[in-house]
Design brief:
By secondary structure, the protein is an alpha/beta fold. It is 20% helix and 30% strand. Bound molecules: adenosine monophosphate (AMP) and magnesium ion (MG).
Amino acid sequence: MTRLTIAEASCADDYDPNSMPVAKARAFIHQFLEPLTATVRVPIRGALDRVLAQDIVSPLDVPSHRNSAMDGWAMRGADLAPDAETTLEEIGASFAGRPFAGRVGPGQCVRIMTGGVVPEGADTVVMQERAKAEAKRVTFAAGQKTGQNVREAGEDLKRGAVALAKGRIVRPAELGLLASLGFGEVTVYRPLRVAFFSTGDELKSVGSTLGEGEIYDSNRYTIHGMLARLGCEVLDMGVVGDDPSLLEEAFGEAAANADVVITSGGVSVGEADFVKRMLDELGEVVFWKIAMKPGRPLAYGRIGGAHFFGLPGNPVSVMVTFYQFVREALLKLMGVDPVAPVPTFPATCATRLRKAPGRTEFQRAVVSRGPDGALTVRPTGEQGSGILKSMSEANCFIILGDATGNVEPGATVEVQLLEGIV
Ligand code: AMP
Ligand code: MG
C-alpha cells in the first residue's frame, strides 16, 4: 500500500481544517500510525502494563488433569439412582496435589477436594452438601447428573492454542495466566518514548516565584501523569518560551530523541501562525480547529521521524484532547492490537446542560447510582476549559454529540468512565 503524505491526505474533498469533526480527526491520525517493532525480553513481572510482542502458545493443557470443581466425592455417574438416594463405599481420597492411585469401581466412591484429580473410573462429583457420610459409607441425595462438577483437562486452554495474542496489554490477569503456563519470561515491545514540553512566555515551573501575569505550568504534570499511566517512557523537556529559535531547537531535540512529541499551547489562532511557519520547515503538520469543546485547536503531524501532537494550552483541553485523540494513537504505536475504544453507556442527566449543536462536548461529571437504582450523572460545576478542578472531581465525561442541543433534566446522555478497576 502506498502511504499518503499528511499534505495529500489533507486534500480530501470533505476535509475542513476549520471545523474538523472528532471522528474524522481520529481517523485521519490513525492512517499514519505504524506500531513499534523493536522488542525486549523481560521476566514476566516486568511485563506488567507492557504490550506482548509474541503470541503466547500454551505448552500444556489447562487444567492439566481432569479435576474436581467442588469438595465432595467422586464416583461413576451411572451408579447414582436418578430419583432416590444412593449409598456408595468410600475407598480412598484425592486431594489437590495428592491424587488417588487406584480406580473407582461400581458401588465405590472417593473423597475428593476442589482441584483434586478425578480418579480413573470416576466421571462425576457430588458436592459434600448433598452427601451424608457414616464411616466409609456415603449416601448421596437424589437428582445428581453424570459429569457434574468435573473440570475436563484442557477445558480452559488446549495445548497448542493461543492463550494470549500478540498486541495484548499485560495486566494482573495476564501475569497470572503466563505463570499458569509456566512462562518465566516473555517478549514485549520496547516502551514508546514520548518527549513533551509546554510553550508560553507566561509559564513558570513549580519552585520558582511568580511575577506579574505569570502562572505555573500545570500541563507538564498532567501530561506526565497521563503518559506514565500508559506505560510510556517520558522525556520532560520543561517550558519553552514563545521564541522561534528556542522552539525550533526544542522541536529538533524532541524529535531526535523520541517516537512522539507532545506540546501544549501555541496552537490557538493567534499563536499558531508562527508555530506553523516553523514546523513547515521541520516537518509536516496540519492545524485543525476540531468541532469539539473543550479542545478546539489541535495540531498533528510528523517532525523528522517522530509523530507530533500539538495540544491546546488550556489545562482541561489538554486532558480532553489527550484522552480523546492521543491516548488511542499512543496505544496503537505501542503495539496494542486491537485498540478498543473506551466504551460509553447511557445515564440519566440530573441537571440541565447548555449545549450548542455543531460540535461534540466532553463535560466533566460524576456518575453514580441514584436511590431508584438508575445511573444518574451530574456535571462537576463550572466547565471552563481552564478549570482543572472540573476534571479532578469528575469520574466520567458526558459526551454530547455534534447534533445535540440543550439537555433537559431527566434526559439520557452518553457517559464514558475515566477509571476502570484493573
Ligand atoms: P495558548 O493555547 O498557548 O494560547 O494557551 C491557552 C491558555 O492556556 C492560556 O491562558 C495559557 O496561559 C494557558 N496555558 C498554556 N499552557 C499552560 C500550561 N502549561 N499550564 C497551565 N496553563 C497553560
Ligand atoms: Mg501560549
